[in-house]
């Protein structure tokens, strides 16, 4: 994710040194040639979370107001499997430590976030069953990740890690692992019309049918 002149990328990090970045997020100002791990005033704890839980596999998205939203997997048995945090300075520090996101039900797994512009909607991809990696589901937030609602269930098959990309003005791309009997059978790329993901949200425009509809 790029925030002004800075690239921000989530990464796993099991160190517990004071000042570690949240969820092991390195920052870069060199166009990808070199990376640094910024400190955090809320650093410390497992993976630099600064809060409860054991955060890992963090993904980031820049919200319309310029804040960076960090969404992460929580490996701790409680209080939940998802946690999030916000940064106002491009990922250098967190406004508050990672906190459980009670509005997201998911197994322990990596998820992906993507901020759409026009419309301003934050998307999250990941399995929705709390005890099993299935089904792959897309969820949307119109308040910067405070609340979420499911907007598209891809299918009922096992599914694991995923990534999201804005293909063009009308299409979002979803890449995810899946399979008939397990989550590692294949890697699938799907094109999803933006209108299919936003038509149930407040103020959404009328749905437009597409040849790429799932």
Describe this structure in words.
By secondary structure, the chain is mainly beta. The protein contains 1 helix and 14 strands; from the N terminus they run ββββββββββββββα. The strands form 4 sheets. A 4-stranded antiparallel beta sheet has the order 4-5-6-7, with no helix packed on it. A hairpin with an 8-residue loop joins strand 9 and strand 10 (136-141). The longest helix has 5 residues, at 194-198. The radius of gyration is 17 Å and the shape is globular. The two termini are 27 Å apart.
Can you summarize this structure?
With 214 residues, the chain is mainly β.
Based on CA inertia axes, which overall geometry fits? globular
Mean pLDDT: 82
Beta-strand portion reads 35-45%
Using the CA coordinates, give the radius of gyration.
17 Å
How many helices? 1
Question: What is the strand tally?
Answer: 14
Secondary-structure element order, N to C: EEEEEEEEEEEEEEH
Level of helix content? under 10%
Overall structural class, as computed from helix and strand content, comes to: mainly beta
Largest sheet: 4 strands, antiparallel
Strand order of the largest sheet: 4-5-6-7
Uncertain runs? 16-22, 39-49, 207-214
Amino-to-carboxy terminus distance: 27 Å
């Amino acid at each position: 994710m790029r925030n002004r002149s800075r690239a921000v990328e989530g990464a796993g990090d099991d160190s517990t040194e004071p000042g570690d970045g949240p969820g092991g997020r390195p920052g870069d100002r060199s166009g990808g040639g070199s990376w640094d791990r910024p400190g955090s005033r809320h650093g410390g704890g497992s993976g630099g979370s600064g809060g409860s839980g054991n955060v890992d596999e963090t993904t980031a998205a820049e919200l319309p107001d310029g804040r960076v939203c960090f969404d992460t997997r929580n490996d701790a048995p409680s209080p939940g499997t998802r946690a999030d945090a916000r940064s106002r300075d491009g990922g250098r520090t967190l406004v508050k430590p990672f906190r459980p996101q009670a509005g997201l039900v998911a197994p322990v797994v990596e998820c992906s976030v993507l901020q759409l512009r026009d419309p301003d909607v934050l998307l999250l991809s990941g399995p929705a069953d709390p005890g099993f990696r299935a089904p792959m589901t897309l969820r949307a937030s119109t308040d910067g990740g405070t609340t979420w609602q499911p907007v598209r269930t891809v299918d009922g098959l096992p599914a694991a890690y995923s990534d999201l990309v804005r293909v063009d003005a009308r299409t979002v791309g979803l890449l995810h692992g899946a399979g008939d009997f397990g989550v590692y059978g294949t890697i699938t790329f799907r094109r999803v019309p933006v209108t299919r993901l936003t038509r149930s949200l407040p103020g959404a425009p009328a749905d437009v049918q597409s040849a790429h509809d799932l």
